[in-house]
Amino acid sequence: MSLGTSLIVWVCFLPEVNADWLVQARGHSHYCSLIGGFPVSHRGGSEGFANYQDEALREGKSLKDEDVLQHLPVGTTATFYFRDLGAQISWVTVFLTEYTGPLVIYLLFYFRVPFIYAPKYDFTTSKHWVVHLACMCHSFHYVKRLLETLFVHRFSHGTMPLRNIFKNCTYYWGFAAWMAYYINHPLYTPPIYGEQQIRLALILFLFCQIGNFSIHIALRNLRPPGSKTRKIPYPTKNPFTWIFLLVSCPNYTYELGSWLGFTLMTQCLPVAFFTLVGFIQMTVWAKGKHRSYLKEFRDYPPLRSPILPFVL
Amino acid sequence: MSAAAQGTSKAAHGDVASKKKKGPGALATAYLVIYNVVMTAGWLVIAVGLVRAYLARGSYHGLYYSIEKPLKFFQTGALLEIFVFPCNAFGFYLSCSGIVPSSVVLTGFQVLSRVFLTWAVTHSVREVQSEDSVLLFVTAWTVTEIIRYSFYTFSLLNHLPYLIKWARYTFFILLYPMGVTGELLTIYAALPYVQKTGLYSVTLPNKYNFSFDYYSFLILIMISYIPLFPQLYFHMLRQRKKVLGRTEDYSKVE
């Protein structure tokens, strides 16, 4: 049933509310069960369909999925405001799609599939070993991301707007194609400082990959399975997490480091552009996260910066 | 009971708060007025320059050279609108003319495309400067900008003559297509020279592993007009209905 963009509903609490109908009788003082069982708040579970979420007790702040009507600061009747968030898609679906693309696309360029380069180069391989190394690193990075999406991350929100998948995939797939084109080009020029530069870049890349993974694990462990609690992350026994002393979002810091490593390794301007754009976006996210940490926790460590120690 | 009542009254208060509009302070208004007056004057200079050159030569060929410098100066100056004076684009001060804010993105995009055409095409490819298509878009820009900047000036001073408002939301109907035609023809005319000289292009191999083909880029720009121009045009048509439509209603009441 379609409820339009907003709907004001007077509700009374009853011992049990059937998921199929909405009761509008007044005067009862019993309370409902979990808000998830409430008729118009069903989320469907299936991706890509319209969802009504974020029942708001007052205009502005939305309720969480786990909120129980019984415990809300209202009397026996309350007004619920609903907002149509539009077509939604699950985070997991978006992540899997946007990360599989670069993995496959890069390999198409690496194997020099026809119609990309001149026909005499079809299915040839580069004579530079750094090109093979770059392919391994790039592929490893996205395989890691896919596995983390499936097994490591615990998402706060189930879904995001559907149009995001088009936006995100264009970004990831587009940049992957652009980078891969030059790195795997027959006329590719290897780094100026040769093996030294490549070795340093590889060390930086691997260090930051491990670091990024460590942070993801640490963040996962903050949150018991199935819950959406939020806690301040702290350094653990793993030295890669000690960066939490200085930074709120070290996963982004390490991600930046990985791509700097990849830029250095390939000495490719499009890769540098990709790193820059990613850095800008991650800084925006990190600042937002940092701000919400500060808002939510009174005792948040003051030494921490959002993404770069002491700087940003 | 009381908690619910509190909830509703807070919601009502929220409504009132959101209706209050934010406007620029006195100093910002002064800056904006000066800017818009200067820009109006600048484009008037260009208009007068075109007319004088036409009368002097007796033909409309090659008039670009007579207004080249002020055109570059004032069109580039419009960059201030996206980087320094977003108020212009947001239309904060359009209180007297109603509820029509223009979008920073659309205005910004338009200014950037104009600056691109002025410098990266017309200035960079000397051979197109004598083309008639250049006169076509310069004329369109000149008339549009004179009206637009005087519109902003009067709006800021809260004394907007209906004629100016009408002109701003009507002249574009002819001037937009005229300008776009001039722009596209000019880019098209520049293509052979760009291809021949490899202007602004970088080829492989090089140590940055990067390449850029300005010729293909220009073709892409031309193609982008297809989705973008209709959007801008219909946006203006919708604005027109909103802005001019209301006053038509009022006149019916009288």
UniProtKB/TrEMBL annotation, chain A:
Any one GO molecular-function label of the UniProt entry: oxidoreductase activity, acting on the CH-CH group of donors
Compartment(s) of residence: Endoplasmic reticulum; Membrane
Entry annotated with the keyword Endoplasmic reticulum: yes
3-oxo-5-alpha-steroid 4-dehydrogenase C-terminal domain sequence ranges: 159-312
Membrane topology label: Multi-pass membrane protein
Stretch forming the signal peptide: 1-19
Entries under InterPro entries matching the protein: 3-oxo-5_a-steroid_4-DH_C (IPR001104), SRD5A/TECR (IPR039357), TECR-like_N (IPR049127)
Annotated TM spans: 89-111, 170-188, 200-219, 240-262, 268-286
Protein name: Trans-2,3-enoyl-CoA reductase b
TrEMBL record, chain B:
EC number: 4.2.1.134
InterPro entries: Tyr_Pase-like_PTPLA
Catalyzed reactions: a very-long-chain (3R)-3-hydroxyacyl-CoA = a very-long-chain (2E)-enoyl-CoA + H2O; (3R)-hydroxyhexadecanoyl-CoA = (2E)-hexadecenoyl-CoA + H2O
GO CC annotations, alphabetized: endoplasmic reticulum membrane
Transmembrane parts of this sequence: 28-53, 73-96, 103-122, 134-157, 169-194, 214-234
A Pfam family reported for this protein in Swiss-Prot or TrEMBL: PTPLA
Topology class, membrane: Multi-pass membrane protein
Signal peptide (UniProt feature, chain positions): none
GO molecular function: very-long-chain (3R)-3-hydroxyacyl-CoA dehydratase activity
GO process annotations (BP): fatty acid elongation; sphingolipid biosynthetic process; very long-chain fatty acid biosynthetic process
UniProt-annotated location(s): Endoplasmic reticulum membrane; Membrane
Pathways per UniProt: Lipid metabolism; fatty acid biosynthesis
PANTHER family: VERY-LONG-CHAIN (3R)-3-HYDROXYACYL-COA DEHYDRATASE, VERY-LONG-CHAIN (3R)-3-HYDROXYACYL-COA DEHYDRATASE 2
Stated role: Catalyzes the third of the four reactions of the long-chain fatty acids elongation cycle. This endoplasmic reticulum-bound enzymatic process, allows the addition of two carbons to the chain of long- and very long-chain fatty acids/VLCFAs per cycle. This enzyme catalyzes the dehydration of the 3-hydroxyacyl-CoA intermediate into trans-2,3-enoyl-CoA, within each cycle of fatty acid elongation. Thereby, it participates to the production of VLCFAs of different chain lengths that are involved in multiple biological processes as precursors of membrane lipids and lipid mediators.
Family to which this protein belongs: Belongs to the very long-chain fatty acids dehydratase HACD family.
Stated name of the protein: Very-long-chain (3R)-3-hydroxyacyl-CoA dehydratase
Organism for this UniProt entry: Oryzias melastigma
Lineage, broadest ranks: Eukaryota, Metazoa, Chordata, Craniata, Vertebrata
